[in-house]
Structure formats: structure tokens, C-alpha cells
Amino acid sequence: MTDADIRRYARLMRELGLTGLEIDEAKGTLRLECAQLASPAPTPTLTAAPAAPALEAAPAGALTVSSPIVGVFYAAPMENAEPYVKIGDRVKKGDVLCIVEAMKLMNEIVAEADGVITDICVQDGQLVDYGCVLFRMEAQE
Q: What whole-number distance in Å separates Cα of residue 81 and Cα of residue 69?
């Protein structure tokens, strides 16, 4: 385990608000703990309704769909189910593209425009940050 790995785990702990984390990489156990601060930083609150994903204009009529929150990306509604979209699928404004789970809330990310999915930029189960590009689309009219 490298110094960079330990720093990555420490960042993950901060992002998720964890006070402890134990990792067993082939019995090379690592345990990270952090003490509660006297005045903890305010934690962001999530609402039940998901925020609209950011769409950025890209050259040649392309659009990107970015994550509106930090969470875990899910391509399908449940394990072993078909993904909401695949590369080449046509989507309409309002179609569900994926789910980003944050604090046990399942936030549906929907298409903000009609288009064709040209790239899926993250993998199922991957932790995504705010603004992380999830999909690239070609705009359709």
C-alpha cells in the first residue's frame, strides 16, 4: 500500500463523513480513525428531489451530463437489471439515465434534452463527485 493509497482513503473518509475505516488488502490491515472536532464543519443536506444535472455545451452539438451531487453511480435500477441507457440509445428530455445514491437516497438523473448517448464516462458502482461527467450525448432536434 502506497502513501497515495492512504491519502485516497483519507479523502474518501472526509467525503463520506466517516470517523473510521479499516482496509484489509491481503491481510496488510490498515485502520484509519479521525477524532470528532469540537465544532464540526457543517454537512450539506440533501433533499428528496434530485437537482437537475448540469448540461454543458460542447463542440459539434454534443452535450455532457454531469453529476449534481457526490454519491455512487448506478447504471440500472437494481443489481442484475438492464441499464437505463446504453451507448447508441436515443433518449428524450426527462428520460432517466442513471441513479446517483447519496446518503441512502436514490436520485434519478434525467436527460435535459433529446439526444443519443455517445459515451458512458463512469462505471456502475463508482463513486462520483459533484460535476463529474457521467454521459456524453449528441443533441437531437
A: 24
